[in-house]
């Protein structure tokens, strides 16, 4: 019924394409295309090659690209509303959201109509021989078909909201990750690792759950209104005596929800603090072990965890109370309503069964409604947190010169500053600065000679003022000067990490920065140099030779397959630097600033 074609490869293994792409309408409605995988899973432990690949529209690259384009358009628009993120989510994922709403309302209609068929069937049975047999069969078959159609639409609804929720989570996670790579250094200090991890895990999941919760909310309201209306029609005013309980309980649940909102907000702050401390401990575990600080950090983490657990316990107790309250409400509604009705009227089976059916429909709405309100509160908090992060200031964008330009770097009347104090060893410094135009292998001395930099401020805000710099393509320029004169700040300004007050920076092509401490991931030397690029043997060998890595690779047991460890811990300082040179050289960028 379905065909499976190789789609992608994981390592040396081929992964099958998703059979949903070629499934017919019956297979899609009943998820028949999934039977082969279920059968295979019952026979053996599933491996990666047994699983289906994602459809193109489900892949993170496609989802991230669509979301990012709309988000950038929303940010650059003149609209200054505080709900940009929600509007972008609606624009990108709204179509399937409304499809899910259509599926849900069809299911709700089948459930709300079913009690009427129960009433007609019971009435038909009570009439006995006076009623048509065919009418009885028609009612029974109709009730069966209603339940069947409802089940199909309900499962399709769950499939749509779950997949759409996962898409939203994927879009938000990739957007947060992308934002971490472009945050300005000053703003980055306001968002530690704990915050970012919380945005990518907890907050994005809560926002993704909105797809389901929004439909559940109006569905609960619809079921409550229709069920109450039908009960009033059948029982009359005695039905209102039972529903008086709901009038009393709803305000109580609303007050509890407000309290949960306050507790949840403080719990999120404590959670971010705990994750930040854990990240700090993991990154500095070697230092902690060497200094035998384990007990101190364990106590610190345990104390934060206890505070977090107490907040979570309060939230769970409140949720348990409201859920328990809502679960028993339909029972009391049924008892009170039917008891009062029986005082003034005789109870007939068709009235009892129909009323119980409608009261039974109230169980799900009254049970889930408080948790839905709480989920909206949490999602609103998460939306605000992620939107505040995504709209934070980015690193200054640098204009790229055309290939025909003779300059690799141009700075015109540039003034840059750090927005916070920078520790400077010298109490004061008066310097001229950086020479204008550099020649081949030019040496620029910031401690003497003519310059176009008026001053370097080392007061509360460290700044570089009125810089004019022209560096030709192919030239080697060295910036030298006394300690604290602004050499590193100049590189930071060229990278866009210092805030530009005025002036322009233009580059004659791409730029690759080689920091003083090379950034190496826990992988092989080859993987660190390639940095995700496909292997080109000739190009790779030229990089090895030009960066003088050949001798070091020969001395290592596994050559370029040698694992460098976390942050290059298995390499010497010189080998780390050579690895950093190799990373930058492979990209063949126009500008290569070294520190």
From TrEMBL:
The lineage of its organism: Eukaryota, Discoba, Heterolobosea, Tetramitia, Eutetramitia. GO terms for cellular component: membrane. InterPro entries: ABC1_TM_dom, ABC1_TM_sf, ABC_transporter-like_ATP-bd, ABC_transporter_C-like, ABCC_6TM_D1, P-loop_NTPase. CDD domains: ABC_6TM_ABCC_D1 (cd18579). One of its GO terms (molecular function) is ABC-type transporter activity. It is found in: Membrane. This is ABC transmembrane type-1 domain-containing protein. The keyword Heme does not apply. The chain crosses the membrane at residues 97-122, 134-160, 216-237, 243-260, 325-344. Keywords: ATP-binding, Membrane, Nucleotide-binding, Transmembrane, Transmembrane helix, Transport. It is a multi-pass membrane protein. Residues 99-378 form the ABC transmembrane type-1 domain. It comes from Naegleria fowleri. It comes from the Eukaryota.
């Amino acid at each position: 019924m379905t065909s499976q074609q190789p789609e992608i490869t994981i390592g040396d293994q081929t992964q099958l394409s998703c059979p949903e792409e070629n499934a017919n309408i019956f297979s899609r409605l009943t998820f028949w295309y999934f039977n082969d995988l279920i059968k295979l899973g019952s026979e053996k432990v599933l491996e990666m090659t047994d699983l289906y690949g994602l459809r193109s529209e489900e892949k993170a690259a496609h989802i991230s690209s669509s979301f990012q384009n709309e988000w950038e358009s929303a940010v650059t628009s003149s609209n200054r509303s505080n709900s940009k993120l929600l509007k972008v989510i609606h624009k990108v994922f709204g179509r399937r959201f409304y499809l899910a709403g259509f599926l849900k309302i069809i299911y709700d209609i089948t459930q709300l109509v079913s009690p009427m068929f129960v009433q007609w069937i019971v009435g038909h049975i009570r009439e006995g021989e006076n009623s048509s047999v065919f009418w009885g069969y028609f009612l029974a078959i109709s009730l069966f078909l209603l339940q069947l159609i409802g089940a199909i639409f309900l499962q399709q609804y769950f499939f749509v909201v779950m997949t759409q929720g996962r898409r939203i989570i994927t879009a938000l996670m990739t957007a947060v990750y992308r934002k971490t790579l472009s945050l300005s250094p000053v703003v980055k200090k306001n968002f530690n690792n704990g915050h970012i991890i919380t945005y990518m895990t907890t907050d994005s999941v809560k926002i993704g759950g909105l797809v389901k919760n929004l439909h559940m909310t109006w569905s609960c309201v619809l079921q409550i209104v229709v069920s109450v209306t039908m009960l009033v029609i059948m029982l009359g005013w005695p039905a209102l005596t039972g529903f008086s309980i709901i009038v009393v309980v709803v305000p109580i649940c609303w007050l509890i929800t407000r309290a949960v909102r306050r507790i949840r907000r403080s719990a999120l702050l404590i959670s971010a603090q705990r994750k930040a401390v854990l990240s700090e401990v993991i990154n500095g575990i070697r230092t902690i072990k060497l200094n035998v600080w384990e007990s101190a950090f364990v106590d610190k983490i345990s104390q934060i965890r206890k505070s977090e657990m107490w907040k979570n316990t309060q939230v769970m107790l409140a949720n348990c109370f409201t859920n328990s309250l809502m679960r028993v409400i339909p029972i009391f509604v049924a008892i009170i309503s039917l008891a009062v009705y029986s005082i003034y009227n005789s109870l007939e089976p068709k009235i009892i069964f129909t009323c119980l059916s409608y009261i039974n429909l109230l169980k799900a709405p009254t049970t889930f409604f408080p948790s839905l309100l709480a989920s909206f509160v949490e999602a609103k908090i998460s939306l605000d947190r992620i939107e505040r992060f995504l709209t934070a200031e980015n690193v200054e964008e640098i204009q790229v010169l055309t290939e025909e330009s003779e300059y690799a770097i141009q700075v015109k009347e540039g003034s840059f500053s750090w927005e916070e104090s920078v520790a400077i060893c010298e109490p004061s410094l008066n310097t001229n600065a950086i020479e204008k135009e550099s020649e081949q292998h030019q040496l620029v001395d910031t401690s003497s000679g003519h310059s176009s930099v008026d001053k370097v401020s080392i007061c509360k805000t460290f700044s570089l003022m009125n810089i004019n710099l022209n560096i030709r393509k192919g030239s080697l320029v060295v910036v030298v000067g006394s300690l604290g004169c602004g050499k590193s700040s100049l590189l930071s300004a060229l990278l866009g990490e210092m805030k530009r007050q005025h002036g322009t920076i233009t580059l004659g092509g791409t730029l690759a920065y080689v920091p003083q401490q090379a950034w190496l991931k826990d992988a092989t030397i080859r993987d660190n140099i390639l940095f995700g690029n496909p292997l080109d043997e000739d190009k790779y060998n030229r990089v090895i030779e030009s960066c003088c890595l050949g001798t070091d690779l020969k001395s290592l047991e596994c050559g370029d397959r040698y694992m460098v460890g976390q942050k290059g811990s298995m390499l010497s300082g010189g080998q780390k630097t050579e690895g950093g040179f190799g990373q930058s050289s492979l990209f063949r960028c126009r500008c290569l600033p070294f520190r």
